[in-house]
Amino acid sequence: MTPKIGTHPEWDEARRALLVREKELTRMSDALAQERLALPWVPVEEAYVFDTEHGPLTLAELFDGRSQLIVYHFMFGPDWDEGCPSCSSLVDHIDLPRVHLEHHDVTWVAVSRAPLAKLLAYRARMGWSFPWVSSYGNDFNYDFHVSSTDERPLLEYNFRAVPAEARAGGPGELPGMSAFALRDGFVYHTYSAYARGLDAVWGMFQWLDRAPLGRNQDDAPF
After folding, report:
1. Of 151, 204, 190, 197, which Cα lies nearest the Cα of 174?
2. How confident is the prediction for the chain on average, in pLDDT?
């Protein structure tokens, strides 16, 4: 990117014009948030059981006494030796705000298909403390379209069909987040986001978007 060099009055005029667009985006974001809340809640009928440091726990038990649950689908395959670097960067920003989420009745949990021992070892290495559970023994990752194998190819990601040529042998693990509500003993799926839909929860990108040269990345493939 070659920067445009200008005078302060030119910058001030351009910045004021940009502010109008930023305010439009803010208002649109507020409206989208209301539409997000208006999505129907879908009962989760599968009895998922996760391997956790506190023993086997159901999806309902992952709420840990709260009424809302946010799951981050962390890319860490069963045969991987360490977690995805991009996912690692994202969750680097969660331990401190997680306390405030809990104050707002929201539990935050990372879920990966790797065995629990690998997850906990990597968590210790990275200095994290958030709850991280393994879905290796259930279909959770497959049902939420973030994992695939040769036997179980990924047919859909980010609410679009995966091209046939991209299904064989991969992509293996992909990032995403899903939200759930617990009411009257029933778990409901309320929201999921994938690929660039995660940008809004990735604190680093919010800063990079305001840095002089912006981001240094390619668009997500799906």
Report:
1. 197
2. 90
Tokens of 212: 């002089």
Those residues with Cβ within 8 angstroms of residue 59's Cβ, 6 or more apart along the chain or in another chain: 44, 48, 50, 69, 140, 180, 187
pLDDT in tens, 97-128: 888 889 899 999 999 999 999 999 999 999 99
Range list of β-strands (E), the chain: 42-43, 49-52, 55-58, 68-73, 106-112, 132-134, 156-157, 160-161, 176-183, 186-194
pTM: 0.88
Burial of 178 (0-12, 13-18, 19+ CB in 10 A): buried
Query: Cα torsion at 137, 141, 146, 147 (round to 10°)?
Result: 20
User: CA 153, 154, 155, 156: dihedral to nearest 10 degrees?
Assistant: 170
Given this model, what pLDDT does residue 222 score? 43
Both tokens of 153, joined, read: 């190819």
